[in-house]
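User: Predict structure, ligand guanosine-5'-triphosphate.
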Amino acid sequence: MTPLSAIGWHWTPATLPPAWAALGAAHPQARPARVVEQHRSGYRVSEVIDVVHPAESLPEWQRAGSYRKGEINPEARPAVGDWVLVEGSAPKSLRIVALLPRFSAIKRGAAGEHYRQQVIAANIDTVFVVCGLDGDFNPRRIERYLLLVGGSGVQPVIVLTKSDKPEAEVEAALAALRTLDVPVLALNAKDPASASALAPWLAAGQSIVLVGSSGAGKSTLTNTLLGNEKMKTGAVRERDARGRHTTTHRALMALASGACLIDTPGMRELKPTGEEDVAESFADIEALAQQCRFRDCKHTNEPGCAVRVAIASGVLEAGRVDNFLKLDAEVTGAANQLATRLAQKAQARVQGKALHKRLDAKYDRH
Ligand SMILES: Nc1nc2c(ncn2[C@@H]2O[C@H](COP(=O)(O)OP(=O)(O)OP(=O)(O)O)[C@@H](O)[C@H]2O)c(=O)[nH]1
Ligand SMILES: [Zn+2]
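Assistant: Predicted complex:
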């Protein structure tokens, strides 16, 4: 056990990923730390639970650069949840010297003029997709979260809260989500005994993120899982670069089980990156589509559409099909933007090479 265990470190010298070991050997003075906040001006990292310090990042992570020239690859920069190697002493002179390759990354498309991707949480083991069994219950929103999490390397678990409410239709909700091939639990987020059903995903060294719309019960569940730690949920005291005490939002919380919860504001609104696999998320619809008369069936009003037949016979929910079509269009749109961006990058690289060649020839550099 090291203090790092409480913030998600579960490797031993024997289980350390070889790439991490190699980076460690390349930076013998450095030690691992976890990124808990990402700001415009830099990063905040933890080496010990509830102790957060600013850390200077590598210059190439700070430069604005041009997306056209491929100078900034957001994926190559640390994000919340990443393990990095740091040197120097806290609180004033911590420096990040390397980013350890991540084993999972939840990404989203970022709003803006140009196509951009953001890693919103790295090295997460499980994401709890939280949805209340009240008027807010919405399988379509759950499908969206699952699509975005699919392929990230993170295990999704659907957590239906408010099962204790009189209006909760637990059985109907479980039935509606059965096609998703993801663990689904219904519980009372206020009740520790009920929330203990999540124990299989909360083993020591596990990192968990909660997503879900406002009012779904994320804070309630977080408090219940924290138990005695409850009072500390909202805020953490930390020392800033000048040594002053400040109180900020708590981004990484340790559970008694040894797991940790990571809270990042980036998880609120999720827009596809274009890399999502819609067919995999909607495998049931994809399988039916194989039986449609037309290969390019849009499943709207084509004759011989197996998907429409399934809806008519009650095998498939019309809302799920609509959501599939909507998300598929969103992912296709983002994928086209992504392709354009990659083409621009490749072109810029070729132009750059040609320029160097001309300059080399002109000045006889070699
Ligand atoms: N009865 C009951 N009430 C719950 C349950 N989970 C959450 N609530 C209530 O629902 C309301 C919203 O819960 P929050 O935990 O604040 O929701 P949240 O997801 O954190 O919302 P944001 O902070 O806005 O993102 C609160 O009044 C909770 O007490 C539950 O399982 N049972
Ligand atoms: Zn069809």
